């Protein structure tokens, strides 16, 4: 089976790092990211938020730990013969280099990593003929699901919407690995 994985919020526990650094930078004391639109959450223009991420990208992408159980779950899935393809909204270039370096340092296995930038992930999901996809952004999850691919939504404060039948919410990597394994 070909399994697609998002990185931030699924494999990388990025949002606690983002929250801490955004609070420092914008002098806020937010306790959680409950809106995926962080510019709106912090009350700034997207250009300001984009500049923050550009200026701090290497630190923001190297600092997170893997999500608890992610390395073990991904390894188990690969050991069972599944192909793991990451499809991320991170940009090619510097973000690509920082991401691959982080994955290697954290011993995160992969077959392929696709850097989409602002492009819709659905095109990569179709191109690489993925059987299932794991996402944390509810908008992306719905688009991928509507293209005919099975989706698991990794639970987060910013994605708690009513899900259609066919998108399965998972709360941790143990649960996710078990759900994917039962698909075979």
From TrEMBL:
The Enzyme Commission number assigned here is 3.1.3.-
- Hydrolase: is it a keyword of this entry? yes
Name of the featured protein = Nucleotidase
Q: Which UniProt keywords apply?
A: Hydrolase
What does the similarity note say?
Belongs to the 5'(3')-deoxyribonucleotidase family.
Q: Which InterPro entries match?
A: 5'(3')-deoxyribonucleotidase, 5_3-deoxyribonucleotidase-like, HAD-like_sf, HAD_sf, Nucleotidase_putative
State the SUPFAM superfamilies in the record.
HAD-like (SSF56784)
The active site lies at: 6 (nucleophile), 8 (proton donor)
Q: Which PANTHER family match?
A: NUCLEOTIDASE YQFW-RELATED
Q: What class of enzyme is it?
A: hydrolase
């Amino acid at each position: 089976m070909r399994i697609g994985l998002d990185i931030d919020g699924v494999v990388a526990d990025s949002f606690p790092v983002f929250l801490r650094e955004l609070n420092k930078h914008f002098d806020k004391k937010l306790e959680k990211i409950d809106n995926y639109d962080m510019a709106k959450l912090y009350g700034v223009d997207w250009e300001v938020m984009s500049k923050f991420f550009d200026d701090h990208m290497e630190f923001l992408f190297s600092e997170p730990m893997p999500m608890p159980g992610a390395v073990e779950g991904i390894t188990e899935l690969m050991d069972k013969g599944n192909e793991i393809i990451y499809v991320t909204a991170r940009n090619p270039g510097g973000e690509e280099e920082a991401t691959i370096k982080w994955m290697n340092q954290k011993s995160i296995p992969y077959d392929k990593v696709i850097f989409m930038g602002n492009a819709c992930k659905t095109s990569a999901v179709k191109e690489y003929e993925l059987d299932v996809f794991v996402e944390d952004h509810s908008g992306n999850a719905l688009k991928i699901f509507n293209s005919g691919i099975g989706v698991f939504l990794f639970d987060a404060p910013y994605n708690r919407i009513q899900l259609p039948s066919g998108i399965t919410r998972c709360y941790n990597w143990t649960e996710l690995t078990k759900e994917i394994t039962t698909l075979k």
